[in-house]
């Protein structure tokens, strides 16, 4: 049996009429575009196809104000397969408007390259379970403090030095091929001078290069 909400299951909140909910009021909004008419036909869901109508400039402006991504500080867009070709244009449009976002989760979205995106205020970024193969494919994140890249396909540590001048304190690279590189932890810590924790483990004596060890013994690490 179909639920009363069934006709709306492929719509974003701002496509539903007669409400004034804004994007900055939602933590986990659906932004994924619905299936094409052709795909809905093969699914036997023609009833869910949204009729395309002529949209006026006023309606476009009202939708932009309702989305108001510019005011969003925390946002979770995980598990929406936003890396699909069908989704990329709308997804990147949203990312470019996140000029004030500080915490952003994009887990399991089949993402491959966000290098054209800049997130000027982002302090915490979680892009676990995507398809990144290099640090060069990450967005510009000059204020990043906590970065999680677990379960991607990052092959080497090449490009990690691009994060050297950020305040990055915690980095997670678990279950990436680069984790098996010789002297992995030493190389990461030597590339990122502000880093305190790697893969959930604080910086240890054996993670220091020989020139750092003398100064390291002046500190105390409690595990």
Looking at how many chains there are and whether they match, the oligomeric state comes to single chain
Shape: elongated
Overall pLDDT confidence: 89
Number of helices: 5
Report the sheet with the most strands, covering strand number, pairing sense and barrel closure. Answer: 7 strands, mixed
Question: What share of the residues does DSSP label as strand, in percent?
Answer: 5-15%
Reported CATH architecture of the domain at 71-217:
Alpha-Beta Horseshoe
* Share of helical residues: 10-25%
Strand order of the largest sheet: 1-2-3-4-5-6-7
Q: Can you characterise this structure?
A:
The protein is of the alpha/beta class and 223 residues long. It has a domain at 71-217: Leucine-rich repeat, LRR (right-handed beta-alpha superhelix) (Alpha-Beta Horseshoe). The chain has five helices and seven strands; from the N terminus they run H-H-E-H-E-E-E-E-H-E-E-H. A seven-stranded mixed β-sheet has the order 1-2-3-4-5-6-7, covered by helices on one side. Helix 4 (184-191) links the parallel strand 5 and strand 6. The model is unreliable at 213-217 (pLDDT under 50).
């Amino acid at each position: 049996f179909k639920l009363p909400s069934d006709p709306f299951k492929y719509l974003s909140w701002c496509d539903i009429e007669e409400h004034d909910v804004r994007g900055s009021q939602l933590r986990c909004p659906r932004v994924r575009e619905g299936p094409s008419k052709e795909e809905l036909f093969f699914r036997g869901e023609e009833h869910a196809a949204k009729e395309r109508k002529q949209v006026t400039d006023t309606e476009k402006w009202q939708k932009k104000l309702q989305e108001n991504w510019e005011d969003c500080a925390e946002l979770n867009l995980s598990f929406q397969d936003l890396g699909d070709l069908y989704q990329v244009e709308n997804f990147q449009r949203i990312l470019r408007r996140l000029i004030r976002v500080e915490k952003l989760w994009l887990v399991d979205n089949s993402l491959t390259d966000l290098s054209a995106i800049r997130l000027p205020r982002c302090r915490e970024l979680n892009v676990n379970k995507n398809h990144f193969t290099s640090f060069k494919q990450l967005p510009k994140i000059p204020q990043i403090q906590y970065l999680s890249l677990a379960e991607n396909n990052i092959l080497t540590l090449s490009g990690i030095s691009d994060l050297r001048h950020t305040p990055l304190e915690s980095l997670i690279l678990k279950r990436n091929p680069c984790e098996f590189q010789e002297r992995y932890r030493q190389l990461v810590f030597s590339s990122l001078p502000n880093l305190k924790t790697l893969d959930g483990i604080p910086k240890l004596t054996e993670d220091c290069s020989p020139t750092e060890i003398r100064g390291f013994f002046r500190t105390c690490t409690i595990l």
